[in-house]
Amino acid sequence: MDTTTIRYEKEIRNEQVMVMTEIAIGKWRDLMSTLDRDAANTHLRLSIKGGGCSGFMKELDFCDTKDISEMDMVTEFEDVKIVVDPKSLLFLHDATLDYHDGLMGAGFTIEIPSAKNSCGCGDSFGM
Q: What is d(CA 100, CA 80) in angstroms, rounded to the nearest whole number?
């Protein structure tokens, strides 16, 4: 196992659900501190929506504890909670959430190995 990646294995159809890198965990904590948000009740929601040039778009958003439904899956990476709705989970079961900081910009990224293709900007993908 890569030392920069913390893996929490939850089994759905014998597949790992997702991975969040240590860098992404640290950046999420920094963001909560910078924005003065209640980290215990503010979570990261990952979702997949129809659209984009390749068919599906990846979305990241804040999610308050009160907005988590019974159908949502919540995965914990240390003290960071990732919330995913059941339909999006079909696409995100093998995803890696990371944070990149470079000359072309900085931000969270979602890499989906099972995607068949993606657009040039990396925001949309096809299955």
A: 18
CATH superfamily ID and name for 15-122: HesB-like domain (2.60.300.12)
Give the residue among 96, 54, 103 at the shortest CA–CA distance from 75: 96
Continuous segment of H or E residues that includes residue 29 = helix 22-34
What length is written for the chain? Answer: 127
Instruction: Please name the amino acid found at residue 93.
Output: H
DSSP for 72-84, please give it: -EEEEETTEEEEE
pLDDT tens, residue order, the chain (127 aa):
443 434 433 444 444 568 999 999 999 999 999 999 999 999 999 998 988 777 788 899 999 999 999 999 999 999 999 999 999 998 888 899 999 998 888 999 888 888 777 766 666 666 7
> What is the C-alpha to C-alpha distance for residues 125 and 115, in angstroms, rounded to an integer?
6
Q: Global pTM?
A: 0.78
